[in-house]
Amino acid sequence: MARDRTLPKSRGLRGSNQTTVRDFNERLILHLIRRRGALTKADATRLTGLSPNAVSMIVGALEQDGLLLRGEPVRGRIGQPSVPLRLNPDARFHVGLKIGRQSLDMAIVDFCGMVRARRARPHPYPTPGETAAFVKAELPGLLRRARLRRADLAASGVAMPTGLWQWSDLFDADPGEMAEWRGFDAARDLADLLPGDILVENDATAACRAEWAFGKLAHMPDSVYFFVGTFIGGGIVLNGNVFTGCRGNAGGFGPLRVPDEPGGMRLVDHASLIVLQRMLRAAHPDAAPALSEDGDWNALEPILTDWIDRTARGLAHAVVSTAAVIDFEDVVIDGAFPPAIRDRIVAAVGRRLAQSDLQGVTAPRIAAGSFGAVARAVGAAAGHVSARHMVGTAFALPG
């Protein structure tokens, strides 16, 4: 079976034949229902400009394919009762695999973005062999927990840092073993282990894609997204599309300059979990507390508060810098930590931004992300949903 190596990129303008127009219209209606939660055929007709007959035919085909479900008729209005249509969460299942610098994470995600089963495993640093062994060992258990068969999985996605072998000195990884990633091709080397076509994307961009397809960015068409993990990255949403850049690395915020801060001039030197780990090791050289996404981080005080303040200062600089380049309306912040920590960081960034020099810049709104640590695995799965069942709102429409 031919396998996709990366998410498709738009290259110039192309004509359309009848088949591609029909496919676009189907994706358009699915996209609108995903964004609005439910839609009647009358709503779809009004929003798309298609004829009632065309909408009826498209909806019928989508129902036959199992992508849509009918709700209870809404009565009490003039004419025939309207029937809301919603997405069928069981229509498609995808596997999302996150290959991270300090952990592996794999999830089965349904058509509406819900995680049906998940397994995460920490490690000092990743290797290709360990990754393959993890997938082979854990996928059968995920299928059992999700009550699915392998044949029920439509396709797979892999989210991993670009140039995974780089910056290994920042987290005590073996340079020789990390160099094995140079010749690694996820779509090729995991083809016998993961089901279906495999899409590969930068891990932080994938986290942004999860938020765009299933979370808050669905309603924020011009936004910047920051994900605080072992390092820091993120994504950019323009005109309702995740903008990946010519090499797929748009939103690689780690090298952004952070002035007048001791400890480094880059955002990654301040707003990253590797910094928190170093601060903890300095204070507890014999037994530095572990960072668990569902643990009690209050035990990390008072160092935790110092790190949150440091992260917020760095992110406030980054928000001003990015807003000066593109007039973003919204900023979404997420990361591999408990929701309470994410909320503290969001509040701290808001306070820092209010104290910043914003001359010439309109301060964007700041919001917390939706997924936490699992965002990258969910985003790996979301690549197939966005590529095959959604459109950018730049194309979508009136209303």
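^ that was protein a. below is b, sequence first then the tokens
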Amino acid sequence: MRGSVAHQVHQVFETVKEIGTSKHEAKSLARAGGAVTWHQIGKEMGVKSYATLDAYRDVSKDCFRYAKEELGVKDIEKLSGEDVKSFLESKIDAGVAHATLSQYCAALEKLEVALNRYGEQNLTGQTYQFSEAIIEVREAGRDLDRFEGTRAYRNPRGLVEAVRGEKFRLAAAIQQEGGARVSEANRIKEASLMGIRPDSQTGEVKGWIKVQGKGGKIREVGVQPETYARLEKEAANGRFEFKTEAYRNALKAAAAASGQKYEGSHGLRWSWAQNRHAELQRNGKSYEQTIGQVSREMGHERADITEHYLR
């Protein structure tokens, strides 16, 4: 299939668009076709509301965009279970909540249904099976909300130094020194480099980078002047960018080489939060002041989210 990400996803989801039709009748047809469990029945049914359809399409566009940019998949009909698994694993690495991961999984299960219907209707002969990959990721992410320990690296600087590849090492340094999400450390434009100045909280001289976080929030993250200089050089031709799938693999290898458990790219953000918290307290701030400051610097809505990182 040709066309933009949005166009291809829209075309595929037209096959499961059943707005205004009877749910009861759809369930009966699913059971008549051999579906027994609620999960099986759900997979056989189409989408009955515009809100759900929009939500499923948004996740599918996100997944397809990831597959296109990171894995070179330009045709949604060539999307595989491994591609879907890689996308979901990247979301776990980014620190999504268990409920959010479940929503992604549900949307991509419906994408599987939509692709199979599209193949049947257009006689392509292609079939899709994402279920095994999704089950594996669900299992890996089952404790995202219940986790009570820390995902911070024991030796984050050692991890960064063990990363192979200049771009990947630079990305890791930005996350470790500035607390940036992996999405914020990627595709940094030259215009987002805000110069070198003292940290308003500690007086330490840093290079500042403007990033856009969740919900479109704009903030600045500070890194060491040496890291900033490397970033200036990399972004001189327009922007600094890297493949997140390859970056994740580089971090896994670096964790093994430095004798640490792999905690994903988000583990560097955990490490930064704990180090920044301790640094601000050493500079005379109270616990409440420190939590508030770190929360703002991480781009969090609530301070209790930040406390989760300090365990």
